[in-house]
Amino acid sequence: LVSLSGIGALVLAEPRVLAILRWFGILYLSWLGTKAFLRFRASMIGQSLSDAVRAAEKSTSFFRHGFLMSLSNMNAVLFFSAIFPQFIDASAPIAPQVGLLYVTFCVCWLVAFLSYATIGAIIRGSIRNSSATRWLHFLSGTVYFAAAGVLGFRR
Protein backbone atom coordinates (compact mmCIF):
# COMPACT_ATOMS: atom_id res chain seq x y z
CA LEU A 1 0.00 0.00 0.00
CA VAL A 2 2.86 2.35 0.83
CA SER A 3 4.51 1.59 -2.50
CA LEU A 4 1.30 2.33 -4.34
CA SER A 5 1.11 5.73 -2.65
CA GLY A 6 4.14 6.91 -4.59
CA ILE A 7 7.09 6.18 -2.30
CA GLY A 8 8.56 3.96 -5.02
CA ALA A 9 8.62 6.88 -7.45
CA LEU A 10 10.02 9.13 -4.72
CA VAL A 11 12.84 6.67 -4.02
CA LEU A 12 13.66 6.43 -7.73
CA ALA A 13 13.61 10.22 -8.14
CA GLU A 14 15.49 11.13 -4.95
CA PRO A 15 18.39 8.86 -3.91
CA ARG A 16 18.66 10.52 -0.49
CA VAL A 17 15.27 9.08 0.46
CA LEU A 18 16.60 5.60 -0.25
CA ALA A 19 19.65 6.32 1.93
CA ILE A 20 17.41 7.46 4.79
CA LEU A 21 15.24 4.37 4.43
CA ARG A 22 18.35 2.20 4.32
CA TRP A 23 19.61 3.63 7.63
CA PHE A 24 16.16 3.17 9.12
CA GLY A 25 16.39 -0.47 8.03
CA ILE A 26 19.82 -0.83 9.63
CA LEU A 27 18.52 0.52 12.94
CA TYR A 28 15.47 -1.70 12.76
CA LEU A 29 17.51 -4.85 12.04
CA SER A 30 19.84 -3.96 14.91
CA TRP A 31 16.84 -3.57 17.23
CA LEU A 32 15.51 -6.99 16.15
CA GLY A 33 18.94 -8.51 16.73
CA THR A 34 19.13 -6.98 20.20
CA LYS A 35 15.70 -8.39 21.09
CA ALA A 36 16.72 -11.85 19.88
CA PHE A 37 19.95 -11.76 21.93
CA LEU A 38 18.02 -10.60 25.00
CA ARG A 39 15.69 -13.59 24.61
CA PHE A 40 18.70 -15.89 24.27
CA ARG A 41 20.32 -14.36 27.37
CA ALA A 42 17.12 -14.60 29.40
CA SER A 43 16.73 -18.26 28.49
CA MET A 44 20.37 -19.02 29.39
CA ILE A 45 20.16 -17.54 32.90
CA GLY A 46 17.36 -19.86 33.88
CA GLN A 47 14.27 -17.90 32.98
CA SER A 48 11.90 -20.21 31.17
CA LEU A 49 11.64 -19.51 27.49
CA SER A 50 7.92 -18.83 27.57
CA ASP A 51 8.47 -16.31 30.41
CA ALA A 52 11.28 -14.70 28.41
CA VAL A 53 9.04 -14.32 25.38
CA ARG A 54 6.17 -13.00 27.49
CA ALA A 55 8.48 -10.50 29.16
CA ALA A 56 9.82 -9.33 25.81
CA GLU A 57 6.48 -9.02 24.05
CA LYS A 58 3.11 -7.64 24.99
CA SER A 59 0.17 -9.10 23.15
CA THR A 60 -0.32 -5.97 21.05
CA SER A 61 3.36 -5.69 20.17
CA PHE A 62 3.17 -8.75 17.89
CA PHE A 63 0.72 -6.90 15.66
CA ARG A 64 2.75 -3.67 15.87
CA HIS A 65 5.95 -5.55 15.02
CA GLY A 66 4.40 -7.20 11.98
CA PHE A 67 2.80 -3.97 10.83
CA LEU A 68 6.05 -1.96 11.08
CA MET A 69 8.00 -4.73 9.42
CA SER A 70 5.58 -4.79 6.48
CA LEU A 71 5.42 -1.02 6.25
CA SER A 72 9.19 -0.64 6.17
CA ASN A 73 9.84 -3.49 3.74
CA MET A 74 11.67 -1.97 0.78
CA ASN A 75 11.34 -5.23 -1.13
CA ALA A 76 7.58 -4.69 -1.26
CA VAL A 77 8.08 -1.13 -2.50
CA LEU A 78 10.42 -2.29 -5.25
CA PHE A 79 8.19 -5.27 -6.08
CA PHE A 80 5.07 -3.16 -6.49
CA SER A 81 6.95 -0.45 -8.38
CA ALA A 82 8.39 -2.98 -10.82
CA ILE A 83 5.60 -5.55 -11.16
CA PHE A 84 2.25 -3.80 -10.76
CA PRO A 85 2.63 -1.31 -13.63
CA GLN A 86 2.94 -4.22 -16.08
CA PHE A 87 -0.60 -5.32 -15.22
CA ILE A 88 -2.26 -1.91 -15.36
CA ASP A 89 -3.96 -0.74 -18.54
CA ALA A 90 -3.41 3.03 -18.85
CA SER A 91 -6.52 3.44 -21.02
CA ALA A 92 -8.84 2.06 -18.30
CA PRO A 93 -9.58 3.56 -14.88
CA ILE A 94 -6.55 2.92 -12.68
CA ALA A 95 -8.13 2.79 -9.20
CA PRO A 96 -10.19 -0.39 -9.80
CA GLN A 97 -7.19 -2.13 -11.37
CA VAL A 98 -4.90 -1.23 -8.49
CA GLY A 99 -7.61 -2.27 -6.02
CA LEU A 100 -8.01 -5.66 -7.68
CA LEU A 101 -4.24 -6.24 -7.78
CA TYR A 102 -3.91 -5.21 -4.13
CA VAL A 103 -6.77 -7.48 -2.98
CA THR A 104 -5.36 -10.39 -5.00
CA PHE A 105 -1.93 -9.83 -3.47
CA CYS A 106 -3.39 -9.65 0.06
CA VAL A 107 -5.35 -12.88 -0.41
CA CYS A 108 -2.22 -14.67 -1.65
CA TRP A 109 -0.23 -13.42 1.33
CA LEU A 110 -3.04 -14.37 3.71
CA VAL A 111 -2.98 -17.94 2.42
CA ALA A 112 0.82 -18.05 2.69
CA PHE A 113 0.91 -16.67 6.24
CA LEU A 114 -1.93 -18.92 7.40
CA SER A 115 0.10 -21.84 6.07
CA TYR A 116 3.15 -20.64 8.01
CA ALA A 117 1.06 -20.23 11.16
CA THR A 118 -0.41 -23.71 10.81
CA ILE A 119 3.00 -25.30 10.37
CA GLY A 120 4.30 -23.25 13.31
CA ALA A 121 1.45 -24.39 15.52
CA ILE A 122 2.16 -28.01 14.63
CA ILE A 123 5.84 -27.85 15.59
CA ARG A 124 5.42 -25.38 18.49
CA GLY A 125 4.80 -28.00 21.13
CA SER A 126 7.96 -29.92 20.41
CA ILE A 127 10.33 -26.96 20.45
CA ARG A 128 8.70 -24.63 22.97
CA ASN A 129 11.05 -25.31 25.88
CA SER A 130 13.91 -27.01 24.10
CA SER A 131 17.47 -25.78 23.88
CA ALA A 132 17.02 -25.60 20.11
CA THR A 133 14.73 -22.62 20.59
CA ARG A 134 17.35 -20.86 22.72
CA TRP A 135 19.92 -21.31 19.97
CA LEU A 136 17.39 -20.23 17.37
CA HIS A 137 17.20 -16.87 19.19
CA PHE A 138 21.00 -16.64 19.12
CA LEU A 139 21.09 -17.50 15.42
CA SER A 140 18.28 -15.03 14.66
CA GLY A 141 20.12 -12.24 16.47
CA THR A 142 23.32 -13.05 14.60
CA VAL A 143 21.51 -13.02 11.24
CA TYR A 144 19.79 -9.70 12.02
CA PHE A 145 23.09 -8.05 12.97
CA ALA A 146 24.84 -9.54 9.93
CA ALA A 147 22.09 -8.21 7.66
CA ALA A 148 22.37 -4.78 9.29
CA GLY A 149 26.14 -4.85 8.75
CA VAL A 150 25.83 -5.88 5.12
CA LEU A 151 23.22 -3.19 4.54
CA GLY A 152 25.41 -0.61 6.27
CA PHE A 153 28.53 -1.34 4.23
CA ARG A 154 26.73 -1.75 0.92
CA ARG A 155 27.06 1.10 -1.55
Description:
This protein is mainly alpha-helical and about 160 residues long. The protein has helices spanning about 5-15, 15-45, 50-55, 60-70, 75-85, 95-125, 130-155. The mean pLDDT is about 75.
Using only C-alpha atoms, the radius of gyration works out to: 19 Å
Summarize the amount of helix as a percent range.
Answer: over 70%
Strand content: under 5%
Largest beta-sheet details: none
| Low confidence ranges | none
**Beta strand count:** 0
- How far is it from the N-terminal to the C-terminal residue, by CA? 27 Å
Structural class: mainly alpha
Mean pLDDT: 77
User: How many helical elements?
Assistant: 7
H/E series, N to C? HHHHHHH
Shape: flat
Which helices and strands appear, and what pairs or packs with what?
Blueprint: H1 7-13, H2 15-44, H3 49-56, H4 59-71, H5 74-83, H6 94-127, H7 131-153
Helix pairs in contact: 1-2, 2-3, 2-7
Describe, in short, the structure shown:
This protein is mostly helical. The chain has helices at residues 7-13, 15-44, 49-56, 59-71, 74-83, 94-127, 131-153. The chain has seven helices and no strands.
